[in-house]
Amino acid sequence: MEKHLKERQEYVDRYDKITVDRCRWAEKAITADFVKKHLKESKDEKEWVRSAIAFNNLHLYFMMGEMYKNKEKTIAKWMKEDEEHDNYFENAEAPKDILCFTCSREMFVTHKQLETRLDKPDRVLFVYDCTLGHIPRRSFYDNGEEWQYKKPLCSKCSNPFDILDEDTDELWKTISTCSKCGNTETSEIKKKIEEEKPDQDYGKDRARFCSKKDGEKYVDWMRTADNLSSYLEKQKEKENNKELYEAVNKIKKLKIIELEQLLAPVFEEAQFTKLQFKDPQITKDVVVPFTVHDIKQGREDRVSCLDLQSVIKKTLNGTNWKLMNEGVNYRLGMLEGRLKAYEKEEDLVKLVV
């Protein structure tokens, strides 16, 4: 069986063909018939035509841009799906112990094919033949379900059709007749496939509608527009919460060395000494572990923890540093904890709400 996964260029060609077809349709949307139909709705003929053409060109611009923006993502999706089809087909296992209806000998697989459907999972159909050539053949899916032929049903009364196949020099013909209501339906398939006429303008239109240069310009423009939109929304939010952001601006943004210089004398006054900062833990946040010693005689460990936490909370109020939620731990007069820095504006907002 031919593999589903092809060279990448085949997917590029397929996507570009879709792009060209859609853009051609959009470009021809303002036709003479369209103008005649809607012109009577406008009092100013020239202005209406000018506006209609301008709108159509804008629509075409966005269509080209969006097709380019989604190109790589769509091609990657197609290739991934086809690779999954191939992997499923290769790894599917044929059901065993399939016996011939005539001689009861075990049958062997002579063909297998992949069935793909949009609304259901893939499955592989295995066709079995008898070693002695007996009929009928048998067919099973990889999940063990046996395939059964079902006659097509009459579109008028749902009775099974009687099928007659005719093979002529030019076509395959199927005549379906309903024995209940007399309805007859015919389908024909031509043997000779008509060659598609060369599309003389395809190369030119592909260059116009699938331009990488124009596509990148569109992506950059959209990125700028999105950033501008986010900025304007942020400014509007700040304007609506003016007092909140004024409070944020008043927060003291302390460096690590400034934090140490602020805490050390306050700790000494509260009889906590030898403040030491360990190496900062830097991920998306900055966290600084610290240790300090309690030198106040007779202060119990629980009271020592509460006193230190109270001093830290009071001293760091109005700064961009806070003691982390786990508080401080006490061991033999030494207390340890962690201080967290708030740098981003959205995090600083949380400190004042």
Which key features would you list for this structure?
44% helix; 10 helices; Alpha-Beta Plaits; 353 residues; 3-stranded antiparallel sheet; alpha+beta; N-terminal domain of TfIIb
The general outline is elongated
How many separate domains make up the residues?
3
Query: How many helical elements?
Result: 10
Strand content: 15-25%
Question: What does this molecule look like?
Answer:
The protein is α+β, with helices and mostly antiparallel strands and 353 residues long. The protein has three domains: 8-141, no CATH class; 150-192, N-terminal domain of TfIIb (Single Sheet), CATH 2.20.25; 249-352, Alpha-Beta Plaits (2-Layer Sandwich). The chain is 44% helix and 22% strand. It is built from ten helices and eleven strands. The protein has helices at 8-27, 32-39, 45-69, 71-91, 202-209, 212-240, 242-249, 256-269, 301-316, 345-352, and strands at residues 108-115, 123-129, 138-141, 161-167, 171-178, 184-190, 272-277, 281-282, 286-294, 321-331, 334-341. The strands form three sheets. Strands 7, 8, 9, 10 and 11 form a five-stranded antiparallel sheet that branches. The protein has a three-stranded antiparallel sheet with strand order 1-2-3, covered by helices on one side. A hairpin with an 8-residue loop joins β2 (123-129) and β3 (138-141). α3 (45-69) packs across α6 and α8 packs across α9 (301-316). The longest helix is centred in the middle third of the chain and has 29 residues, at 212-240. It starts with 7 loop residues before the first helix and ends with a helix.
Brief characterization of the structure:
This protein has 353 residues and is α+β, with helices and mostly antiparallel strands.
